[in-house]
Specification:
mainly alpha, 161 residues
Length: 161
């Protein structure tokens, strides 16, 4: 029973993720058509396209690696706050501009910390002790760790037992 529920939840998650990616592609296409009709590209359009690209990228990363990274949603949030700041800064009180800039800085710091301490952006995976992939097939560390290719072209290090 529990495996059926678990599988149903995973299938629903995958279906919703596909729906989100398709909607992002459709929305990006609509935005491109709007830009072509206006014959003008403004900074807000570029930031919106970046948001669509991040959402599509997040869906792609999930399907490619089967892991959910914490960095993508933070990056999307940072871009969304920046877009809001660009679009509404003329009408905002100066202290609100500072607050939103602080939010962007806080998100950027969170991304930097996650990037530094985890390779995958997923807390608890590939912690600070893990070694980054080297430049060659024959790389070996003093601990006996070496590269491993899983057939997907990605070079990863596994610690020797």
């Amino acid at each position: 029973m529990q495996t059926f529920v678990t599988q149903a939840i995973r299938m629903a998650e995958k279906a919703l993720l596909v729906a989100v990616a398709v909607m992002a592609v459709l929305a990006a296409g609509g935005e491109i058509l709007s830009i072509v009709e206006r014959r003008e590209i403004v900074l807000a359009d570029l930031l919106l396209m970046f948001l669509y690209a991040e959402v599509i990228g997040m869906a792609g990363v999930y399907y490619a690696s089967r892991t959910r990274t914490a960095i993508f949603p933070l990056s999307i949030a940072m871009t969304a706050v920046a877009r809001l700041l660009v679009l509404q800064s003329k009408d905002m009180a100066p202290e609100k501009i500072v607050y939103e800039a602080g939010a962007i800085l806080l998100l950027a710091l969170a991304i930097a910390v996650l990037s530094r301490f985890t390779r995958s952006g997923e807390p608890g995976k590939d912690g600070p002790g893990e070694r980054e992939a080297g430049s060659g097939e024959n790389d070996k560390s003093a601990s006996g760790a070496g590269p491993d290719r899983d057939g997907d072209g990605e070079q990863r290090y596994h610690r020797a037992a």
